Amino acid sequence: MAKVVGLIGEDESDTDVLGTIIRKASPTRRFKFKTFHGHGKGKIIGKCNQWAKNLRDRECTALVLAQDLDEESYAKVVNELKNALEPSTIANYCIVIPVRMIEAWILSDAEAIKTALNLPSTPNDIPNPESLMDPKSKLRDLIYTLSQKRRRYMLTKDNGRIAAHLRIECLRKCPSFSPLRDFINNRL
Amino acid sequence: MINQGPMSKNPSVRIKSFDVSGYRSCVHTRVDLNLELSALIGINGSGKTNVLQSLLLLKKLGNVRSFGHGREDKQSSVCEMQVVFRVREAKVSYSAKINYVTNELNVDEIVGADENWDITLSDGRVERSELPLSVLRLPPEKSYWMLAEYISRRERQKTSSLSGEEITALISRDTVDPPFRPILDEVASFVSKINYYSAAQFTNPSDCPPFFEIEADGLSPRRYGYMRGSHVRFLRDLYNLKEKNRDGFEEYCSLVGKEGISLVDRIDFHSVDLPSSDIELRSGGQIIKKKVRRTLIVPHFVIHGAKLSPAQLSEGTFKTLAVILYLSTDKSDLLLLEEPEVCIHHGLLSSLIDLVKTYSMEKQIVLSTHSDYVLDLLRPENVLLVRKTRKEGTVVGPLTGTLSSKNYEALKHYLNVSGNLGEYWRHTGFDDG
Predict the structure, then answer these.
(1) Which domains does chain A possess?
(2) Nearest CA distance, A27 vs chain B (angstrom)
(3) pLDDT in tens, B295-310
(4) Hey, are the CB atoms on A45 and B417 less than 8 Å from each other?
(5) Does B315 contact A at CB distance below 8 Å?
(6) Is the reported ipTM for this assembly greater than 0.85?
């Protein structure tokens, strides 16, 4: 029987990426995902507890709550989300804060970008994607350049496509992935 | 900050601000634009469309073929515009007193204009010019003669007559090719490529004919009445893109096809040659029969394996295909988008606004919207509030500057801990009361 996991993220592409990564990290198990999208930190903080209750009513037994770090402090964002979420709603939950944004995770596997988007060449490896100031722009520029200006990066669709080819071991380059990896391995 | 990455076309000209007076609801309206993306929001009738249409006047000024203010009569109206352009390091201020008429289709036609330029160069020098935009739009050899006509007419208003030598002297003195002319040429090129898209243009695709006709030159359409509509213009533009710019067509297909938003699988154009001859009647009654090649172009959009003619597309699909075409392929440096959200599902709208943001790094985009969902996808800095008062007419102000500092802090706090921008708009109306 599939485990039903609730995913709360900024947009559909975030929850696509999270769902795909969870499936890839635990390939022998079956998962079903139910989602909510906040389109902004304020909405996620303001609504996450209500959404978690709704996800519990929709049979979710675990919850992943993701919010990009952007320019803020990691500890501050984690605390804000923890305070916003009543632990009793879905006890088995994980807060994921990709450093800057989830596109840093996407940039961790250059081969996946090439394969997913059918690019003629592989982007240069980025050893520490979380050190990039604007991973989204980096991704946008490299896809446009490597496709010889024939393909535009469309984050709403391409993040999910790249995640489908992402190798979990590449995500080790992104320390902000660790809480999710531990959650998948030990609590999901 | 303008993006200078590989996607940027190194944009050199942008509109920083403009003032328009006496145009429709714009009694005296000042608009400070973002150099990348600005979103106009406001209630119906506040004047958003008028703000966009006033920018289109600039493009039309470049097409005027007579100089000077023109004759004012009961049908014509006069408005004044002042536009501040950023041209690399220079600041260019263009002002015009425009005499125009609005035709039965609610389209403005320019009768004439008095135009002036103040150019503040990077070293602080200020130059002035009266070169009309329409002269700047012409190649130098043509612009010389048009300028000769313009100057001699202008000078004749001051003096009774001018000799040929005097006109020549005036033209050289009056800066046919002044040192700052390249700056003005860049501005003229910028305004000539202003483009406008409105969702309303593509209402009811079932009105779209299943084919269009081209002549021997391969691209020009036959000017039948029903072919003048926006639907056919879109199909023709798409066909021209495929024929003239393969890379551009591939990029477009990657955006709307399986690699992009998966709206269509494929776009095909089937051509059918028609036997045809035209008759030309010469003076003296001579009849000349000419063989003219005519070709019928039948477009098809393949969606989930089904081959559909344009009239069979849903309104949202048609509109999205059209707006993405103009977003991605047109050569404009300023794109005006009116209500891009109409008839579009919110999932698709996210992708569309994502594209708008991407292309706003290459071209300045001004959009108007009634959608709180669109606002959710933008930053407060992108938003311009439009309102109308009885006394002042249309008033436009940046959201960040219109709210008091206390109210702006309250908004920022809300965005941090409670909700998002569109929702805040829906519940508060950004009322600074």
Answers:
(1) 3-102+174-187 (3.40.50), 103-163 (no CATH)
(2) 26
(3) 899 999 999 999 999 9
(4) yes
(5) no
(6) yes
